[in-house]
Amino acid sequence: MNILIINCGSSSLKYQLINMDNEEVLAKGLVERIGIEGSQVKHTTTGKEEVIIKETMNDHRKALELVLNALIDSNYGAISSMDEINAVGHRVVHGGERFASSVVIDDEVMEALHDCIDLAPLHNPPNIMGIEACKELMPNTPMVGVFDTAFHQTIPMANYIYPLPYELYEKYGIRKYGFHGTSHKYVAIRAAEILDKDIRDLNIISCHLGNGASVCAIQGGKSVETSMGFTPLEGLAMGTRSGDLDPAIIPFIMEKENLTFDEANELFNKKSGVLGISGISSDFRDLEEAAEAGNKRAQLALDVFANRVRKYIGAYTAVMCDVDALIFTAGIGENSVYIREKICEGLECIGIMLDKERNKVRGKESIISRSIISTAILVIPTNEELMIARDTLELVSK
Ligand code: ADP
Question: Is residue 259 situated within a structural domain?
């Protein structure tokens, strides 16, 4: 069975076609600049050269049409007709409290997705556009929605309620939702497999460290705490997001700098984090290089980032009492030897003992702790697409 995975952003569309008989990727690609001049599809069928298709795409429907044409192209395609796509799995950022697991998309689900727009005004509308385009172009193909928030619906109420007037939770659903759920779930399952343990017996801390970054405490396979909150802005310092702040800072800056809501949103989401501190870049490769060359603000940004992650590891150790596995994943977690070492520095007191030699690894599954007797430290490349494909397969096979 072949499953197409679709991940729509406001002007982008990422896709993968996976053969679920052997979980191999048949083709993948990225559409960029949808609705903007210069739109293009970068498509690669496994074993063939990458092709770039430049064509005007005014909307996600047109983008998807070009993707489907690329998939069935007789030269650079992966399949011979659309009938060979048996199901579609869509990544959806916010499922609110309504979705605690993935679902087959029907009219009722579409309605519920529209109801969640308020909670994720930037992310959910493009996700919905992608689903609607697929429904139009492939009306008879079953579709499944997989939510970034669903994995965290097991977080206990005492961990997800903010200390605000309770009526605000009742009226607007203001609570912690958490994100990156598909990634945290995937790496936790992989960690149990690598350690040859039943996931129900493990306490895991998963650190998804990419442009967006979050930490998750996973007890017996279930999320019990996570660092992102009502939106992905809470928690760690990120590429361009501030993460945790004294909330009083927000109105203070708005008043002093005479900012509108949109400008404030932009400041905390796009101009803060390690970019804001360093003034150089949100990319950790640039920051590591600059810090090495003596740039103090780049070094400070790396220190702040690592300290925050370390603080959350300490907090989540307290949440679960003891930790069997600490996982690093996503761009920085998988690749930055320096950041992993910096995060683990001084955590020997809670049994987290990094092996500096084993830590010299990038982008491949590895155990990087001195032993696995106290806490096993693992690098596990995430694979959200495969997790979405597995959920899709399970639901459409029912
Ligand atoms: P997202 O999916 O959230 O956009 P990724 O998981 O792709 O992010 O991570 C992107 C980040 O990974 C980049 O900003 C970069 O800082 C970091 N990264 C990638 N490769 C390396 C590397 N070799 N060393 C340090 N950081 C890296």
Answer: yes
